[in-house]
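seq as requested:
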Amino acid sequence: MIRNNHRVLPSRSTLQRRQGFRSSQPIPPALEERAAGQEVRLQRPALLPLEIFIYYLSGILLSLLLLSCSNTSQAQWRQFGSDSLFSSFLFSAWSPSSHWLAVLDNHQVQILRPDGQSASLWNADAFCDLDPPGPTFSWLSGDRLVCLDRAESHYLWFSIDSAGHLHYQSQAPLGLSLSSSDIPLFLHANPRYPLIALIIFRNQERLFLSDLQGHQLPLPAPIYATAASWSWDGTQLAVIDQAGTITIYQLVQRASGLPTLRWLRRLPLPSSDSEPVAWSPSGRWLVCRHGTYESEDYLFLQATDGSGRSYKLSSSYRQGQLFAPAWSPDGRLLVATQVSTRTLYQFPVSAWMTQQHLTP
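struct tokens:
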């Protein structure tokens, strides 16, 4: 073996054995050099200044092209209308026709058009209880807005004209006697059937089901919940408890003919308690929230079939914390409120699902 300053090189005879050469065969020049102990280094050809410039320029142009394609093709969150800059929005609710979005704004209800522009501002606090933590207004079928008048223990509902102004239409008794310690927390009207799910704090949060005539409808067992959301077809109710667990109930008819709720399934992934989840128009998905101040806070899709399939929709690292999602009945838009600014943001969820090859 021949040793030089860089590596141990094999001898001439060793090279011959490894390469299968016979003694009569000449050794290739490169191997002859190595056998002689000479250092052989492979060097990259030097680039000319023009080649270096073209190399870096092509990389920059490729990066800009990819960034441009990403910005134009990917669905993104953006502000919902310009009027939200001067508002302090909390919870929002789409009308069944998708023509209106009602948003709680400092004890008033602002009616927005689908483009985010304000149609009217309704001093609902003069008629209804609108105190947080949850929304105590909702939409009935026919684009009628319903709210709770706690002082009179009545439901009030209002029609809406083509300009977006609300007009008193009718009322119905609550069917419950509220004591001074009872606190209405959450109201969600069925968008198809004349039913209202109401959550009241009475030593603990509990769900009550009533019709528009003020009749309380019996449930098979007490349902303890902090929030509830009807599906757009009115046949299912997603109920959230204090632990954030989501349970799906099916609307069924008792032998007496009265409607009631039947336990259907429990979803594997929790959501933030005291906040509504948003149903997709198809009923296949819920928009839930992973709410936290310790790590990433985000909205995510969860399949309602109990499979645990989920897809992230937002990130507090990019859009800030978003809560109270509302999915338009036509399937196009998802609207949510930003925690820090109390402004509304919209997300083209239908287009995003198409990009992700998901069934809406």
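Residues 49-73 form the longest helix (25 residues).
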